[in-house]
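Model the whole thing, not chain by chain.
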Amino acid sequence: MADKRQETILGEQALALTVRCLNFDFIGTNPDESTEDVGTIQAPTSWRSVLQDSSTIELLFEFYKNTEPPRSNKAMEAIILLCSVRRSLFPTDKDRGAFLGRVMTGIRSLLSNQTGFAHQDNYHQFCRLLGRLKANYQLSELVKADGYLEWLELASSFTVQSIRNWQYCTNSIHYLLALWGRLVAAVPYVRPDTGVQGHAEALEKQVLTVVEAYIESMLGSVEMVVNSDGGLDDPLEDDGSLKEQLDRLPNICRFKYGDVAQLILNKFDPLLNQYRQALGHIGSSSTESAPADVSRQIRIIEGQLTWLTYIIGSIVGGHSWSSAHLGDGDETIDASLSRRALQLAQCVDYRLTQSNGVGRADCKLEESLLFYFQNFRRVYMFMWDQVSYLSMLNVMHHICVTHFILY
Amino acid sequence: MDNQQLAQVEALCETLYTGAPSTGENGETITRNEAQSRLLSLQSSADYIPQCQYILDQSQSQYARLVASNSLTQLITTHWNNFTVPQRIDIRNYVLAYLANQGPSLQEFVTVSLVRLVCRITKLGWFDDKTHRELADDVTKFLQATVDHCILGLKILNQLVDELNIPTTGRTLTQHRKTSVSFRDVCLFKVFQLGLTTLKQLQTRAIGEYIGHCVYSTYTNNALFCVSLVVWDFPESHVPVTALISFPLLSFQINSGG
């Protein structure tokens, strides 16, 4: 009989083998081992019976639930791969739907019981699974799966909870944002009468919840980082994760753009006022030479404005000129957000010139402003290079936006 | 090679891996670098293959076994075309038998090295002879022996998939794809299923213990005789997969009986 230690090794080896086989470069398309993102698994048709068999995925879910890392997260890795099997492996859409149903049931049960999420390795893999699910399945298939609405709500509260605990999972947040980004991007392609009733409204509601949590948490992170005196890593300094997150934002935020913009403005305007007041107190001296509490306050406000400027920059940069994705009035909103960024830039600039270069804003804030300008220029000023190619309509748009920003 | 030479090689290996200087045949002190360059000569010519085998067979030093195994892998990869097809099979069978006989008593690093050697030969000889393409079947025997053999078998399979999936330096991409595609079609599914079967066995065994407990109480209370249920020492008793799969049925009988 195998003892506990042997049983653990057997499990590790067998799970590693399962993952290796599924990860095999079946058709010679990924000689590069380094990419973490799973593509479609091109398993041969002869594997169908085993891959499609409900006992296979259930076995892996069982192992995830009943073991500890490194076995549990290996089992999750295998589940991710299994969920990434090519569409054509399934003989009919119905078979594929049944498979998806089992996966979603498994995920729902893990979400409601928070199974194994206390382990960071499990948690990270689970975030990847959520991100992968939409990548390999279409929204029109998800909405038809049993318990879609419940799944959506659970996924949303999981995301919110993760974002609130950003300090433990900076590297995983973008997988979750990717899930929401992919979900909303697919909305135009799903007929409203498909799947469970009210799925579109439910998605709108959950996306707003996620965006709100994201903005709140990132703003909150600033004070925590400042108070920790170097104990916490500043997520603003984690360029890789920051970029991954900013890449996902435009899609998600432009889905209910009006509401999201209002959220941002409600944060931005009071902060900018506080910033101006605080700067008024310290006159032309530098932030460091101000009294400790004022200096601390300025650092917090600047950090929060940095987040908002990055968020605005990424959203404005996500403006699309192709009419399919452009909502009515979206440019007006771009303009009102841009106006805030420009006001902030003006404020920073004014302080700098008034103090002869002594009163510098935190360089992260300056970087975020540059990020904003880059994005704005890319989307709204490209016509300055190639005016002749543009239709009159686009020039009109441009003029309108400028008009909104200025007045 | 004789016993005295073997003792020298062992001393060199000890120096190489522990850093403690040793004394050469003429009384000179041998540093780690010196030991390394002397041992590297084992990889210089295919003529040293019998020496490597001798070390593996005769030495009790794990470091010496490691050096022998690494040297064999190196020699076979670089001088592949110098071996006849039967020679290649001989070496493969030799290493596999060695693993079967000594495997469980070897240090992890020696095992890893020998497993890599078998898999390398399997890949390079894939189209030589069907023996190489039957490695998964041979490994199945490991999976049905003791628990330690089963672990060893899974390690071989893991390494086999990696070996066939990752190009080896010095071979063209075309050669690699040709082998890798053939492996995919002939062998990979079997390997995948072996992995899943092991998982199922592990899972069923856990359930088995639970049932065993129930049976025991039934046995004491109702004086029912359930001797055929003693299957959860599967690795030692060579219980085939089918015996384990019959568990749900048994539990059904127990439930309805109770």
